[in-house]
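Progress narrative, Year 2. Work on Lipoprotein signal peptidase from Chryseobacterium oncorhynchi advanced from sequence curation to structure prediction during this period.
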Amino acid sequence: MKKILAITFLVLLIDQASKIYIKTNFNLGDSVSIFPGFKLTFVENPGMAYGFHFGGIIGKYLLVILRVFLIGGMVYMFKKWLKEGASNYLLIPMSIIFAGAIGNLIDGMFYGMIFDSGSVYDPSIDRWLDYGGISKIVPFGQGYSSFMKGCVVDMFHFPLVDWYVPDSWPLIGGKHIEFFKYIFNVADSAITVGATFLLIFRKKAFPNGLEF
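Result:
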């Protein structure tokens, strides 16, 4: 259990520290090149990992509830796995995934309550509206929005290919080609890394097959 708690705490600390730094030092949309192919680009995401979202504010509520149930289910499974003496090949990747899920849940549930500005949903046009200025932390409950209406902070941007096709090219001339265009955060990375480790070491993680 100590191992699970330590990994979860470390990932959450890095995740939340990086998000708070970006939100309190960058304007929404600011982008700073760190080195070729890597930028810090501040965007806010009301939905899932890597910028995916759906269903306006109702979709956001459903996503938060789904994350709560997912985290609760993982707590149950950790207790089961520890009792059965599961290996580190299972516990460590799942701890990383667990931390990532909690990290994005914190943003969605509480960021609207602890920052003075952020993206808000306008039901009249069914869109999330951007904002100007750098955010500041305010006393809990005095933020720009309410419980479960905060947005996830994303910042890691790897445009390894960032190219405008010459206008002279037939059919695709003038188009912008970017890879990798998705912007993500530490929590997203943790979920991806943990899932990758589970896939690579699945035979050692689940020596008796996938059991729940």
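DSSP finds five helices and eight strands in the chain. The chain has a mean pLDDT of 88.
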